[in-house]
Specification:
mainly alpha, 74% helix
């Protein structure tokens, strides 16, 4: 049977009051709210209030009660540092009853979050997958399934990794420009590529899309643009694609300035590029440019000995010094010329001319 108008109004009023009190109270003060929610549940289930068991209001009440219990348990856990949740059985039961009565994404998402927090990882994944199977899933749910599965995948478990990738590609197919999908997946890919190189492709895809979505300057995520370029540089550096790493790092530094992290990253990339080049004379011009870039990095990080070493690494490259580094080069060239070794070299050159 349905509630009559008066009963419905009273129930709705009590639910609204509970929601308002929930927002105003800290989660460690949810005790009275849990009592009120349970009181309402008991009335509904004991038929003191006539309610259709399939009514959305009852589903909402189950969900709210589960949320209050879960938040309260988390507050207690933060104080006691105990991993278990005091009302774990009730919370799971109420989330499942809410879903049974009304199959809302919000409810399945909350169930996943609860199971994950309770260290029931596989059950959390299963909850998301059941929702996806029933509804096809939204980009948000598909992305979270992809991220969560990858988070706990073994690097040699190709089937599980592929399962994660399948959900990721389904998510971006549904919403190609959803920033959160790429960001959440990238946060797990960042470390996963170190043990599973097959994921480099998705790492680059995520970062390039995050960069695209951080443009133009009035974009919501524009303030993260420099860091995403540097993340891309790190990824290419791991892939040993040093030229691409260099270009990405250069763009990152142009956006966020000469940060210590960015400069150190650029120095690592430049050293890797130099090491990767052979001593073939055909590479002299390229190597000279890299030496000057590296010398400048050492100069602005106050490492004059290394700056001088790389500025003067190739005598025949003096004519190739870029205009922006000319003054620095002259500074180190003059310093070297006045050194003891510089005087010896001048003496040797003079001696050779006399012969």
């Amino acid at each position: 049977m349905n509630l009559d108008q008066q009963e419905r109004q009273l129930f709705s009023k009590e639910m609204d009051e509970l929601q308002v009190r929930r927002k105003a109270a800290d989660r460690n003060q949810y005790g009275p709210l849990i009592e009120k929610a349970n009181e309402l549940l008991q009335k509904c289930l004991a038929d003191e209030v006539e309610m259709d068991r399939g009514d959305a209001s009852l589903s909402e009440l189950y969900y709210l009660t589960a949320e209050l219990l879960f938040a309260s348990d988390l507050a207690a856990r933060a104080v006691t540092h105990v991993r278990s949740l005091g009302h774990e059985t009730e919370i799971e039961e109420y989330y499942n009853k809410a879903i049974e009565l009304q199959d809302k994404e919000e409810y399945s998402y909350a169930l996943w979050n609860f199971l994950s927090t309770a260290d029931r990882r596989e059950e959390g994944i299963a909850a998301l997958e059941r929702f996806i199977q029933r509804t096809g899933g939204t980009a948000k749910v598909l992305a979270r399934a992809a991220e969560y599965i990858l988070m706990y995948a073994d690097s040699e478990d190709s089937i599980t990794i592929q399962r994660s990738l399948d959900y990721f590609y389904q998510a971006i197919e549904k919403e190609p420009d959803r920033y959160e999908t790429y960001w959440s997946f990238w946060t797990d890919l960042e470390e996963a590529v170190d043990v599973c190189p097959r994921l480099f492709k998705e790492s680059v895809l995520c970062l390039e899309k995050l960069i695209e979505l951080s443009l133009p300057e009035d974009s919501e995520n524009h303030d993260t643009l420099g860091n995403r370029y540097l993340d891309l540089a790190v990824t290419y550096n791991k892939m040993k694609e040093y030229e691409k790493a260099y270009e990405a790092a250069k763009k990152g530094l142009a956006v966020c300035g000469d940060s210590d992290y960015g400069i150190k990253l650029m120095m690592d990339i430049l050293n890797n590029r130099i090491s990767a080049l052979s001593n073939n004379p055909d590479h002299d011009k390229i190597r000279a440019g890299l030496y000057f870039e590296l010398a400048h990095c050492y100069h602005i990080t106050n490492q004059p000995e290394l700056a001088g070493k790389y500025y003067l690494a190739m005598d025949k490259a003096r004519d190739l010094v870029p205009p922006q580094y000319k003054d620095e080069f002259i500074l180190y060239y003059k310093a070297a010329d006045q050194s003891l070794w510089g005087k010896i070299k001048r003496w040797l050159r003079a001696l050779l001319k006399m012969r």
